[in-house]
Amino acid sequence: MKRFFRKLLSGIFALRFVIITLLLFFAIDTALAVWAPVERSTLFTRNDYEKTIMSHGNETKYEKVLYGNSTLISSYIEEQSKSGYVNFGLDYGTARDLYEMLTQGYLAVTGELVIDLNYFVLLDELETNPTYPWHRHTFEPYVYFQRDRLAPVINGMATNIMHRSSPLNLPVYDDMRKSVYHGVLTDFELEKGVQRYRDLFWGLGLDSYKDNLEALAQIADWCAERDVRLRVFWGPWNNDVPVPDSVQAVTSAANEVLTGKGIEVTDMSNSLERKYFHDVGHLNYEYGAVYFTEVLDKWLQS
Questions:
Q1: Which DSSP symbol is given to 111?
Q2: Residues 6+ apart with CB under 8 A from 116
Q3: pTM of the full predicted structure?
Q4: Half-sphere exposure of 30 (CA within 13 A, CB side)
Q5: Torsion angle of alpha carbons 180, 186, 188, 193, nearest 10°?
Q6: H helices within 147-233, ranges in order?
Q7: Measured CA distances, 114 to 17, 91, 179, 217, 280 (Å)
Q8: Are 67 and 115 within 8 A, CB to CB?
Q9: What are the tens digits of pLDDT across the range 233-261?
């Protein structure tokens, strides 16, 4: 009997130790998530969501938002615009990303939301930036979620210590600019890029767009419930490149979703000449973006 009670007590103490350890782990992890050292420190690279928020005074609530992916980043110059829209372009940003931001509290829009749409914004299989905060799973530890950004900093600190240097003698990432595109590709360079798109994306059917088409409908419902004006435009497409059937198909599918929700859709895909483009869909920043911002501003203010 004594042996039984000893085992019972031993088991209880072991269970208490495990529970206390888990509680301590969750407390530390929660504290780290609230403190957000990776997002706050200039020792770590910033993703486009963080750059947008930090360059706007750490605000997440805006009256007017213009959302899109890398094509928007390189086609709309917010500082030049007079429309008052925040350029919320995210590299690899999708419709699902926008819906997750809106519903998880990472972005609030109070007045008007405009989406710069193209087939990449609707492509389910496109790799996105894993460091966007809404991609963190419920019970995923903060340190594990940030592992891709923590690893090079920790390695750099260890290397500095080994060389008897200050562990904080590391690169600083304080640039809030997003990646844009410059110049116009040659015919050979453009064709090389087109072939890559053709091999990777243009053979995909509508099944590869189902989740983001659903997210598009959910965004429309979210806006309707909050009396937010939602408009959509199809961004510029280089007319020197024929639009593939798969892109036309997803365009039609998205228009059907939007029309069914009563959303205003404007097609700007054929609005610009080759000289304004860097490649198929990205405008060159020094020329195309300047011109397109003026064109878009007139529509945004309508």
A1: E
A2: 66, 67, 68, 69, 71, 72, 75, 76, 89, 233, 235
A3: 0.90
A4: 6
A5: 20
A6: 147-162, 187-200, 210-225
A7: 53, 17, 21, 14, 22
A8: yes
A9: 999 999 999 999 999 999 999 999 999 99
